[in-house]
Write a structure and sequence with these properties.
alpha+beta; 3 domains; single chain; Ribonucleotide Reductase Protein R1, domain 1; about 325 residues
């Protein structure tokens, strides 16, 4: 009798264990399926983005379409959904244009970046966490030589760093000496911090003002000219010392009524002087031949979320849209 009871007890334990393992495997299988569905929802969002860009030249300025691509509208996909956020890269400063392929400084872009540093530091009040030395450090990251860049026209914080600096770090890595492939590479450059890159949220109870991150104003794509139909007030203000906040805001406000069809139209903007126009006309455009967009798509199925970011290139001549970079966040 004892042996029979022991046998039954052992069998019961085995059955319970088998049942537990079966339930775990079924749960894992369900989770895998939901995760796959969430990714499929994100893929659908990417397909929608590409189709919309092919059919419309300015989806971000279209009042009917822009909310759809703001990341705030849920797009149903089977039994899940996705949200889509698209940013036009043509209104940002291309940091790969800071130096020419032959090694010469892109002085106009360097000056613009120095002004951007001033504008970013202005957010912090008395402190200035963004150093001018970040600019020559970025140039040294991109250029192919091992000579430290010195901005002789800057009176302080004017030297970059080369491979020796990065090799002496506690966790060493090489200086790339090649163009930036993705903007997040900036986090590897001397002088860049997560807060400078991403910004910081405000906290009213603690008296902390929000700060915009530098990533909002920079890109690694395009020919280097700023699309005045897409640029933010800050990027426009960084174009020249002759452009103050009021004039930059006037430029942005005017395009809400009618997008610029030529650079010359800027001369009619209230506050635009011949000096200011002459300083920026060679740096701006109203339409880039090839435009780059960053689409961030979040797919949701059940409790599973998959986020995919893809860089899309649109050829203005053929209206073809192609993905040049994709990563899952």
């Amino acid at each position: 009798m004892v042996a029979v009871l022991l046998t039954i007890a052992v069998l019961a334990v085995i059955i319970v264990e088998f049942n537990y393992e079966s339930r775990i495997k079924l749960h894992l299988a369900d989770n895998f399926q939901l995760a796959a569905k969430a990714l499929s929802c994100a893929e659908a969002g990417i397909a929608i983005s590409m189709a919309a860009l092919r059919q419309n030249n300015d989806i971000l300025s279209d009042e009917k379409l822009s909310p759809f691509f703001s990341g705030m509208v849920r797009v149903p996909v089977e039994d899940g959904h996705c949200t889509i956020s698209i940013a036009d890269e043509s209104g940002r400063i291309n940091i790969n244009a800071l130096s020419a392929p032959a090694g010469q400084l892109g002085r106009r872009r360097v000056d613009q970046m120095l002004r951007l540093v001033d504008l970013l530091n202005y957010q912090y009040g008395e402190s200035s966490p963004v150093s001018y030395s970040l600019i020559p450090a970025m140039i040294d990251w991109v250029d192919s030589d091992d000579d430290v860049t010195l901005l002789s026209f800057v009176t302080r914080e004017n030297a970059g760093v080369e491979n020796d600096y990065y090799q002496d770090l506690p966790d060493p890595y090489p200086c790339k000496n090649a163009p930036f492939d993705v903007l997040s590479e900036l986090l590897l450059v001397k002088g860049m911090t997560v807060e400078i890159f991403q910004g910081r949220p405000g906290n009213e109870s603690k008296g902390i003002e929000p700060v915009e991150g530098i990533q909002r104003f920079l890109t690694v794509y395009g020919d280097g000219k700023i699309n005045i139909n897409e640029a933010s007030t800050t990027v426009i203000q960084s174009l020249s010392d002759s452009i103050d906040y009021a004039l930059a805001q006037n430029i942005v406000e005017q395009r809400k009524f009618s997008r610029y069809q030529s650079v010359g139209q800027l001369q009619k903007i209230p506050g635009m002087t011949p000096e200011a126009y002459g300083a920026i006309r060679g740096s701006v455009t109203v339409r880039s031949k090839s435009r780059y967009y960053t689409a961030t798509v979040t797919g949701v199925s059940g409790q599973f979320v998959r986020k995919v970011q893809v860089v899309l290139r649109k050829d203005e001549d053929t209206a073809q849209v192609a993905a040049v970079l994709r990563r899952e966040l």
